[in-house]
User: Which sequence fits this backbone?
């Protein structure tokens, strides 16, 4: 059913009894043209764009739990395109444009809020780097503004401007950045894919890969074998485990990234704020909770929870940046499993096995990349050619050393990206 103002009014006046399910719950068929492993944001977006852009329908998305139960529901919901490196910059610029048209495209309210993001700088060197990044953003057609200290104070008077350790010299503002509702993004893409004939199979874990003569033939699952002409792996922090079923070893480490939300408060933070002297970022949800996070837990782990040491580190950064937060109570925290690549940039590519495709290595950029990731991966699967905006995300760059995209200049240590 279509969503509209009239339908909302009608359902509200009739006890909300007429809403139809957002998607079907089909049993898996014995064979599909394409099987997508992973029912998170990237997998669902891939299925949607395969159906919408390429007219393909004989597709199944296999999710071992429930749709949207992984990282798409375990993040801080930030959307932005303030990237600088060639390859990354065009991709995230494309992604932001897709975000801006997503609600109309999906006919679904993803609660996209372009409230803007301010990335602070605290030294002359950081200011120079921010100006360079802003110029790169403007040159590719995105928006960026350099704010003085006084201008930052006007936007965010609650920050600690008098800190002797971390004086605020200014910030870089991208007004088109913001936040979106993570669950709604998964639901919107799932609904859109289902309406176009895609089978969304929940509680269906892939336990093996059927490969013959260098070509994928299908998958083994907890709901039985499924044949497929093409198989796409889109499993975020579980990418290494799923790829191992095909005998592949990926250049990926899995780390936990914790996030936190406070009790509901009256509106105080009207932007996304990023600390320049520590990996800390914060925004305020529509329900009033302060949503914030920081660095990864530095040890590799598949546990969807973090440690107390990193909790303390994030709280210290929060207090250094905005002491007012000390008056708020933390309501809950959670952890997402991040698939960290050696250069901090993702992988969207074919594998050495014919018919087997890979989408992983999203590091900190997974949520904001959802639409462009699905768009580009669908293009690759359907045409066997890279979409221009994702042409740099090749797997062999880690073997050859050519085309590495180290956005932050932190080297090849996975957990520093």
Assistant:
């Amino acid at each position: 059913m279509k969503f509209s103002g009239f339908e909302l009014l009608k359902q509200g006046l009739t006890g909300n009894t007429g809403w139809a399910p957002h998607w079907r719950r089909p049993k898996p068929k014995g064979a599909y043209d394409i099987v997508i492993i992973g029912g998170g944001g990237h997998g669902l977006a891939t299925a949607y764009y395969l159906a919408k852009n390429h007219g393909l329908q004989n597709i199944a998305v296999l999710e071992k739990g429930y749709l949207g139960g992984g990282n798409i529901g375990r993040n801080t919901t930030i959307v932005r395109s303030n990237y600088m490196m060639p390859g990354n910059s065009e991709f995230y610029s494309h992604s932001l444009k897709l975000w801006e048209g997503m609600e109309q495209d999906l006919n679904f309210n993803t609660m996209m809020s372009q409230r803007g993001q301010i990335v602070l700088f605290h030294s002359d060197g950081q200011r120079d780097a921010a100006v360079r990044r802003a110029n790169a953003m403007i040159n590719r057609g995105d928006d960026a503004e350099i704010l003085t200290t006084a201008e930052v104070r006007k936007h965010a008077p609650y920050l600690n401007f008098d800190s002797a350790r971390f004086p605020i010299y200014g910030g870089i503002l991208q007004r088109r950045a913001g936040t979106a509702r993570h669950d709604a993004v998964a639901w919107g893409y799932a609904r859109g894919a289902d309406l176009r004939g895609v089978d969304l199979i929940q509680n269906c874990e892939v336990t093996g890969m059927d490969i013959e003569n260098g070509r994928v033939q299908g998958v083994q699952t907890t709901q039985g074998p499924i044949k497929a002409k093409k198989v796409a792996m889109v499993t975020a922090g579980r990418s290494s485990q799923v790829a191992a079923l095909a005998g592949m070893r990926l250049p990926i480490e899995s780390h936990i990234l914790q996030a936190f939300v406070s009790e509901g408060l009256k509106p105080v933070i009207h932007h996304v704020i990023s600390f320049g002297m520590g990996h800390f970022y914060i925004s305020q949800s529509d329900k009033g909770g302060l949503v914030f996070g920081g660095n990864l837990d530095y040890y590799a782990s598949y546990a969807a929870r973090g440690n107390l040491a990193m909790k303390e580190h994030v709280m210290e950064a929060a207090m250094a940046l905005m002491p007012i937060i000390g008056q708020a109570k933390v309501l809950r925290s959670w952890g997402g499993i991040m698939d960290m690549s050696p250069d901090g940039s993702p992988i969207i590519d074919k594998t050495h096995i014919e018919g087997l495709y890979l989408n992983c290595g999203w590091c900190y950029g997974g949520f904001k990349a959802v639409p462009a990731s699905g768009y580009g991966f669908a293009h690759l699967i359907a045409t066997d050619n890279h979409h221009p905006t994702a042409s740099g995300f090749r797997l062999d760059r880690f073997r050859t050393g050519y085309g590495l995209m180290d956005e932050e200049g932190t080297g090849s240590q996975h957990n520093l990206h």
Remarks:
- The domain at 111-178+254-340 is CATH 3.30.9.10 (D-Amino Acid Oxidase; Chain A, domain 2).
- The chain has two domains: 5-77+182-251+343-416, 111-178+254-340.
- The first strand starts at residue 31 and ends at 37.
- The two ends are 42 Å apart (CA to CA).
